[in-house]
Design a protein that fits this description.
Largest sheet: 7 strands, mixed
Number of strands: 11
Helix content: under 10%
Radius of gyration: 13 Å
C-alpha cells in the first residue's frame, strides 16, 4: 500500500520560507508533484519532478524549488519569498510512471493528506 505523508506546513510571515517534505512508502515512485488548493479555488499544480527534470508553475518559478532524496524516498518543496497568495493546503502526489513532469492531477496515482501553509501579510 502506497502512502505519502506530508509535513513542514505552518504559519509564516510574507517574505519568509518553509520547506515541505513528502515521505513515500510502499513502492518505487518515479514522478512526484506538489499541488495546492486555496479556499474556494481549484487545486493547482505547483511543481513536479522526475528522474530527468523538474517543472514549475509560473507563479512560483524562481521562488520554489522541488528536490528529491531517492535514498530516503522523500521529496521536498523549498518555498522562499512567500506571499499571502501562497496560502493553501499543499498536497504531494506521485506516480510510478516516468512520463515527464505534468501539471495535470490525473497524471498522478497517489496523493497525500495535505499540509496547511498560511502566509500572513
Amino acid at each position: 500500500q502506497v502512502q505519502l505523508v506530508e509535513s513542514g506546513g505552518g504559519l509564516v510571515q510574507a517574505g519568509g520560507s518553509l520547506r515541505l517534505s513528502c515521505a513515500a512508502s510502499g513502492r518505487t515512485l518515479r514522478k512526484y508533484g506538489w499541488f495546492r488548493q486555496a479556499p474556494g479555488k481549484d487545486r493547482e499544480f505547483v511543481a513536479g519532478i522526475t528522474y530527468s527534470g523538474t517543472g514549475y508553475a509560473g507563479s512560483v518559478k524562481g521562488r520554489f524549488t522541488i528536490s528529491r532524496d531517492n535514498a530516503k524516498n522523500t521529496v521536498y518543496l523549498q518555498m522562499n519569498s512567500l506571499k499571502p497568495e501562497d496560502t493553501a493546503v499543499y498536497y504531494c502526489a506521485a506516480s510510478p510512471n516516468e512520463t515527464g513532469v505534468t501539471a495535470r492531477a490525473a497524471g498522478y496515482d497517489y496523493w497525500g493528506q495535505g499540509t496547511q501553509v498560511t502566509v500572513s501579510s
